[in-house]
Amino acid sequence: MDNPASPARSGPPSNILFAAPHRPFFLAGVLQATLAFVPWVWELLSRITPLPAPVWPWPPGWVHGLVAAYGIFPFFVFGFLLTAMPRWQGLADTPGSAAKRPWLPLVAGWLGFYAGLALDLAALRVIGLLLVTVGWGLMLVALKPVAFAPGKPRLHPATAWYALAAGTLGLLAWTGFAASGNPLLARIGIEAGLWWLLAPLFTVVSHRMIPFFSGSVLPAYTPFKPTWTLAVLLGASVLHGAFAMADHAAWSWPVDLVAAATALWLSWKWQFRRSFAVRLLAMLHLGFLWVGIAWLLAGLQGLLHVAGIDTLGLAPLHALAAGFFATMTLGMVSRVSMGHSGRPLVADGLTWRLGLGLHGVATLRVLADVVPAAHGVFAALAGIGWLIVFLPWAWRLAPIYLRPRADGKPG
Fold first, then answer.
1. Which residues span the membrane (predicted)?
2. Which residues contact 352 (CB under 8 A, 6 or more apart)?
3. pLDDT value at 146 more than 50
C-alpha cells in the first residue's frame, strides 16, 4: 500500500527529482539537447547569412563534438543504466538518492564549462571539465557493483561499464587539451567519445533491449542476440577508434564493412518490418538501422580514400551521431519516461512525428557532406530541424521529471 506522505508524491521538488535515478539525468539531458544546440545553430547560420558568428576559444566543431559526446548523450545513458542495469542483473532497483552524488558534479561541471566559454576564461573551462570527470568517476563507482555482481551475467553490463571507463580517458584527454592546447589530445578526446564511448554503449543497449522489447510485444517472436555479433560491432568500434586517434581512420575500411554487414543483418534478423506494428518499438528498430548505414558509409569512405578519392566528409560520423545515437535516445528515453512515470507505454502522435522528424534531420545532415555544394545550407537546416524536434520533446518530458508518478506509485 502506497504511503500518501511519501516524498515521491507530496514531498519538496528536490525529493521528487531524486525519487528515481533516471529523473535528474534525463532532465539534464533534455535541457542539454536543446539549450546546448542554440549556439551551434547560431554558428551554422552565421556561415550562410550575414549573422555575426559567435566567438569560440577553439574550433567550433571541436566544442560541438565535446558537448555532444560528453555532455548530451551521457546524461541519458547514465539515467538509463542506473534504471535498467539492476534489472538486467535481477537486483533491486537503484534508489533515486544514489543519483545525487554523480549528478551534482556533472551538472556543476558543465555549468562551469559553459561559463568559461561565455567569459573566455580558460581556467574555468578546465575546472568545469575536471568536475565533469569527478562526476563521471562517481558514476563508475555507482555502477561497478551492479555490472560485476557475483554470479550474474556480465556481457552487457560489464561491457557498458568498460565503455564508460573509456569515456573517462576521453574526458581526461579533453581536459589536457583545455589546459595545454595540444591538438592531439583534442583528437583523442573526440575519437574516444565517438568510437570507444558512445558507439559501444548504444550498441550494447540495442543488442540487449531491442530483441527483449520485440519479444514482449510481437507475437511468435524469438529474441535473437548472438554474442558474436556484439563482439564484431564492439571490436570494430575499438579498432576504428584507434585508427582515428592515429589519424588513419580510412585504413579501417575492411573492419568497417564487416561491421556494416553485421549490423544490417541484425536489423533483418530482428524483423525490422514487423516492428511497425508498435510505434514505440519501431522507433528503436529505425534508430538501429542507422548504425549499419554509418558503418557502411565509413567503409566506403575508407575504400575510396585508398583509391585516391576523398569524399563523404563527416557523413559517417553524423549517420552515427544524429542517426543512431539521437534517434535511439529519443525512442528509448521516451519509453523509459512514460513507463516509469505511470503513463501508458505508447508513442502518441507527437512522439511518433518527432521521431520521424529526427530521422529527416539526420538524413539532411548526412546529405550535407554527401553533397558538398549544399553543405552550408543543409547543415544549417539540420541544426534548425534538431531544435524543432527537441524543443517540443523537452517541453513535454521535462515537467514529468519534476512531478510525482501519474499512477501514485513511488519512483
1. 25-42, 62-82, 127-147, 159-178, 184-205, 251-268, 280-300, 312-333, 373-395
2. 279, 283
3. yes
